TrEMBL record:
The species this protein was found in: Streptomyces sviceus (strain ATCC 29083 / DSM 924 / JCM 4929 / NBRC 13980 / NCIMB 11184 / NRRL 5439 / UC 5370)
UniProt cross-references to InterPro entries, sorted A to Z: K_chnl_dom, VG_K_chnl
GO biological process per UniProt: action potential
Name of the protein this chain belongs to: Voltage-gated potassium channel
Domain Potassium channel residue range list: 48-127
Length: 162
């Protein structure tokens, strides 16, 4: 059993979550110091969760009473939305109505977009981390070097003219 964490400031009711979940909630709520791609990936993941939960409900409503419907309970519909968002699509559950297929299309597009954004954010993080290791020069140092090169070019240009 994982130990429960103390709630972060402003997060009442989170004390019942295991430590790692409380930390994740705290990180998602914090806005300072995160890069744009991490914020976008986090926001897209939150949207995906909402779309999967809502899509599960919507496909149940669309499929209710349809002949041959395999989505007859919320747990089945939730599993279907996870399969659909991840593009696994085992084929064990699928919508048979037109509206059910529209819901499926929305879940697919949001899922594909989200996983693409998360993959891009991870790739950007790995590349930036590698660049920092390979080139540990800070922005101030780079600016100073550019100024020195500019002065050297001016001096060389002046000597050629004179």
């Amino acid at each position: 059993m994982a130990p429960c964490a103390r709630p972060a400031p402003g997060l009442r009711g989170v004390s019942m979550l295991p430590g790692f979940l409380a930390r994740m909630v705290e990180l998602m709520r914090r806005r300072d110091g995160r890069s744009l791609h991490v914020k976008a990936a986090g926001g897209a993941t939150a949207v995906l969760l909402v779309v999967m939960l809502t899509g599960s409900w919507a496909v149940l409503v669309a499929e209710e009473g349809a002949r041959g419907a395999s989505l007859t309970s919320y747990p089945k519909a939730l599993w279907w939305s996870v399969e659909t968002a991840t593009t696994v699509g085992y084929g064990d559950f699928y919508p048979v109505t037109w509206w059910g297929r529209v819901v499926g299309t929305v879940v697919m597009v949001v899922g594909i977009t989200t996983y693409g954004m998360v993959t891009a954010a991870l790739a950007t993080w790995f590349v930036a981390r590698q660049q920092k290791r390979a080139h540990p020069v800070g922005a101030e140092t780079l600016h100073a070097l550019h100024e020195r090169f500019d002065r050297l070019e001016e001096l060389l240009g002046a000597k050629k003219k004179g």
